[in-house]
Amino acid sequence: MKFPGLRKIKHYFPVSQPKPQLPSFEVRPELDTYIVGLDQTIVDVVASVSDEFLQKYNIRKGLSNLVEHGKANLIYQELVAQQAISDHFAGGTIGNTIHNYSVLADDKSVLLGVMSANIALGSPAYHYVCHTSSKVDMNHLQGVAGDIGRGITMITPDGERTFVIDPSDMDELSPDYIPTDIIAGAAAFVVSAYPLRATDQPIQQAMFKALQDAKAHNVPVVMSLGTRHLVEENREQILSTIKDYVNVLAMNELEAEALTGCADPLKAAEAILDHTDMVLITAGPEGLYLCGHTDDNVKRESSNPIKSASLADFNQYEFSRPMLHANCDKPLKVYSHIDPYLGGPERIKNTNGAGDGALSAILHDMAANHFHKQVQPLSGKHEQPYLAYSSFAQICKYANRVSYEILVQNAPRLSKGLPEREDSLEEAYWER
Ligand SMILES: Nc1ncnc2c1ncn2[C@@H]1O[C@H](COP(=O)(O)OP(=O)(O)OP(=O)(O)O)[C@@H](O)[C@H]1O
Ligand SMILES: O=c1[nH]cnc2c1ncn2[C@@H]1O[C@H](CO)[C@@H](O)[C@H]1O
């Protein structure tokens, strides 16, 4: 486990101690620190298109559009004929998130989903496997006869991305392929709301089996909301899933509005915190918000400038560490916000995956806390059952920095970790 940021001596963190066991790529629940993600396995086929192209096929811009195979094929063939396809990348919102987690933490994660049992050169499954970190354990995937999903990622001249999803066999995941022991030992279980639109498909039962396993073993459940119309169309089911299972909810400001009716991210976060423990709301050029709970007895005042917006002095306690609502004697809602790192890249070609990147940073901080608690159970850092190692403010910085990296490299999956010299996130930009 690489720690998210160099820490001062008081934060003793034995990252360099060699592990006595022989190395293994397969996750061993009793020995490893890891997170588990469940996803509709999808390869992203990236293409440049005009706005007229979207209109011609009646595709809703900026959203993830689920279409039937025939229509997706027609679109794909036209893009091939126009030579508009630039490349194939591994995708899937949770696949991206756990890949990025493994790159940032330099540690293991487990992917649950389907994979073509026979992988031909150049097939969607081939591209997926080629572009996934070797630290992502794929030993628990379910083999299927057909292809994994294909997500045609259409980039319009304004840099906006629109998905056309051809599901193929991506929703075939059966509950039999949910390994309870692997989930039980995880630092977190992460899933998106996308499987909720796969009505009557096996992946829905698989997802609920995994959620029940995580809940039964007190593994924090992290859910990302996917895309705005998914929330609009499945609002009640999503809300009840959040109330029953979810500890950390991630979304962009449009999804937050669809869920709560509040266009203002702070007000939306305040409303969502009535149902869950922590909330990430990314807001594009407005930066991101991380909000959650802490116990009033251990709240910490921020030394940053205090901000007011729709909530007065909202970031006053952003130096507190996140806790589950149920673990607080006197729960206090905490809000933190950060503007884009360095104001954002000079030119953004495509924002695909920037939100997933922010979530992987949060997962890294949560897993670091889990690891630290295992190796230093008596440390003062664990006097309370905290959900993450760092404060809301520090996690915001880290999440923001990772989003920036995704934006500059123009792909949803990190090809390398963050630069070492910036590890503390205090050097360079932060102390200016
Ligand atoms: N135009 C921009 N300028 C500066 N920073 C940006 C811009 N767009 C995104 N960011 C950064 O990336 C983060 C996440 O972006 P955004 O809100 O677009 O995520 P998203 O819509 O959830 O993305 P995705 O669903 O593709 O993962 C923002 O919080 C911000 O830090
Ligand atoms: O229906 C879906 N299920 C799972 N992942 C999806 C779906 N639609 C889009 N993405 C994934 O979201 C990522 C960017 O956040 C893309 O990589 C895309 O593959």
CATH topology descriptor: UDP-N-acetylmuramoyl-L-alanine:D-glutamate ligase
Biggest β-sheet description: 9 strands, mixed
> How many DSSP-defined strands?
16
CATH architecture: 3-Layer(aba) Sandwich
**How much of the residues is beta strand, in percent?**
15-25%
Distance between the termini: 29 Å
Which secondary-structure class do the elements indicate? alpha/beta
Q: Work out the radius of gyration.
A: 21 Å
Helices and strands, in order, run as EEHEHEHEEHEEEEHEHEHHEHHEEEHH
Q: CATH homologous superfamily name? A: Ribokinase
Name the average pLDDT: 91
Low-confidence stretches: 427-432
List strands and helices in order, with pairings:
Elements: E1 35-38, E2 42-48, H1 51-56, E3 64-66, H2 69-81, E4 85-90, H3 93-105, E5 109-112, E6 114-116, H4 124-130, E7 136-137, E8 142-144, E9 149-155, E10 161-166, H5 180-184, E11 188-192, H6 202-216, E12 221-224, H7 228-233, H8 235-245, E13 248-252, H9 253-260, H10 265-272, E14 278-282, E15 288-295, E16 331-338, H11 354-375, H12 392-409
Parallel strand pairs: 1-5, 1-11, 2-9, 3-10, 5-7, 6-8, 11-12, 12-13, 13-14
Antiparallel strand pairs: 2-4, 9-10, 14-15, 15-16
This protein binds adenosine-5'-triphosphate and inosine (NOS).
Residues 40, 42, 44, 64, 91-93, 96, 151, 163, 165, 192, 194, 352-353, 356, 412 line the site of inosine (NOS).
